[in-house]
């Protein structure tokens, strides 16, 4: 049978509606209906068992992730990446403990990969009560650390890609300590997501050790990546390198000083603010960042759009609006930094 997402499926649509009604309280039933149709279409179109297992397990892991994080949505969280092989006696381990402890004291929660090394240091500093662990099942290195072993906010993933979604989607900021292939993979993915606008802007802090791990990486980036034109200089606005945990925390807090969040409606970018900007400040932004606006468009102060009614807790916030060109996400990070200077 050919199924469609439009309501042209006859008795199948009737059965789905009956199923939804029988279950009772269903949030956003139109979306749930499409998910059911997607599952049915997969069963019709795919006869390869491994692919169906992948779809099924992905859905189950993401549903459980949402369920674990949902009660803590109002709280800001910082994701910490770093090597599983860092030992507790090493200075960078203790730096991470201090960093996460100070963040927890300021009301942040910590997300780590849940394993040993820097991950354990992040959970240790914040304490189990302020921590999440998004662990990956591996044959070595990645058993849950003792801080998080019995924690209800421990999630064990089969798939790296679901785990990566949790790391980025649920965080307000990310801190990356020195590490191996896994750490660099996680860091580079965040660079890419911010650079291409596939995740909301958020501070990315690279916390260096005394050997200059990130300093040496930065030299490579400037010489080999920027030098060959593979990135633009504006992309350096995406991250900050520091050895000072207090500076790292200040960068994270400063990012949300005036800026609150953003949302796209086609070409229109709405930036929600913690305090209202004056018209003179808006004009300064226009003059300093013409590259991020479509030609002939303006930056304006505005009221919430009708489409924002699905986030009622944010309707009280002042806003500015612009026609973003979807090209300069590095400059968008700098633009947010300028907003926070007011």
TrEMBL record:
<dbReference type="GO" id="GO:0008714">
    <property type="term" value="F:AMP nucleosidase activity"/>
</dbReference>
<dbReference type="GO" id="GO:0009691">
    <property type="term" value="P:cytokinin biosynthetic process"/>
</dbReference>
<dbReference type="InterPro" id="IPR031100">
    <property type="entry name" value="LOG_fam"/>
</dbReference>
<keyword id="KW-0175">Coiled coil</keyword>
<dbReference type="GO" id="GO:0003677">
    <property type="term" value="F:DNA binding"/>
</dbReference>
<dbReference type="GO" id="GO:0005829">
    <property type="term" value="C:cytosol"/>
</dbReference>
<dbReference type="Pfam" id="PF03641">
    <property type="entry name" value="Lysine_decarbox"/>
</dbReference>
<keyword id="KW-0238">DNA-binding</keyword>
<dbReference type="InterPro" id="IPR005269">
    <property type="entry name" value="LOG"/>
</dbReference>
<feature type="coiled-coil region">
    <location>
        <begin position="268"/>
        <end position="295"/>
    </location>
</feature>
<protein>
    <recommendedName>
        <fullName>AMP nucleosidase</fullName>
        <ecNumber>3.2.2.4</ecNumber>
    </recommendedName>
</protein>
<dbReference type="InterPro" id="IPR052341">
    <property type="entry name" value="LOG_family_nucleotidases"/>
</dbReference>
């Amino acid at each position: 049978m050919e199924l469609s997402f439009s309501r042209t499926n006859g008795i199948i649509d009737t059965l789905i509606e009956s199923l939804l009604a029988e279950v009772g309280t269903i949030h956003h039933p139109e979306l749930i209906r499409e998910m059911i149709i997607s599952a049915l279409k997969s069963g019709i179109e795919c006869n390869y068992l491994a692919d169906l297992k992948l779809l099924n397990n992905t859905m189950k892991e993401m549903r459980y992730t949402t369920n674990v994080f949902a009660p803590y949505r109002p709280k800001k969280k910082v994701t910490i990446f770093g090597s599983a092989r860092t030992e507790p006696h090493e200075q960078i381990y203790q730096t991470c403990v201090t960093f996460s402890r100070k963040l927890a004291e300021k009301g942040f929660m910590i997300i780590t990969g849940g394993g040993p090394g820097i991950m354990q240091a992040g959970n240790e500093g914040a304490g189990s009560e302020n921590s999440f662990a998004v662990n990956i099942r591996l044959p070595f290195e990645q058993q849950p650390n003792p801080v998080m072993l019995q924690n209800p906010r421990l999630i064990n993933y089969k798939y790296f890609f679901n785990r990566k979604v949790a790391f980025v989607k649920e965080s307000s900021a990310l801190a990356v300590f020195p590490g191996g292939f896994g750490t660099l993979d996680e860091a580079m993915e965040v660079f890419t997501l911010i650079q291409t606008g596939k995740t909301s802007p958020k501070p990315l802090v690279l916390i260096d050790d005394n050997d200059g791990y990130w300093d040496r990486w930065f030299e490579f980036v400037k010489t080999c990546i920027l030098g060959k034109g593979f990135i633009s200089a504006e992309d350096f606005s995406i991250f900050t390198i520091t050895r000072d945990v207090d500076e790292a925390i200040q960068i994270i807090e400063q990012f949300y000083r005036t800026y609150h969040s953003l949302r796209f409606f086609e070409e229109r970018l709405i930036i929600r603010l913690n305090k209202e900007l004056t018209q003179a400040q808006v004009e300064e932004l226009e003059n300093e960042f013409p590259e991020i606006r479509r030609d002939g468009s303006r930056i304006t102060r505005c009221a919430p759009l009708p489409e924002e009614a699905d986030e009622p807790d944010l309707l009280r916030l002042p806003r500015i609006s612009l026609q973003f060109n979807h090209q300069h996400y590095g400059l968008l990070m700098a633009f947010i930094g300028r907003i926070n200077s007011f």
